[in-house]
Amino acid sequence: MKAKKRTERQYNRAKRQATRRRANTLLRDADSIDLLSMLENYKTGVSNPDSPWPAAGQFNPLTGEAVIYPSTRGEDRDDVRTHELTHSSQFNSSLKGRPNNRTVREAAEGLEDSIGEVQRGTMTGKQKYVIDPLELEAFIKGAHNVASEQGVDFSGDFESIREQLNRIPQDKTNPNIRGLISLLQPSGDSFGNAWRDDQKQYLQEAFNGVAQYKDMDENFTPSNLAARRQRNLEGRMEKKTSEEAIKEWLQRSRDSRRGGRGTQQNESGY
Question: What predicted TM-score, i.e. pTM, was given to this entire model?
Answer without folding.
Answer: 0.75
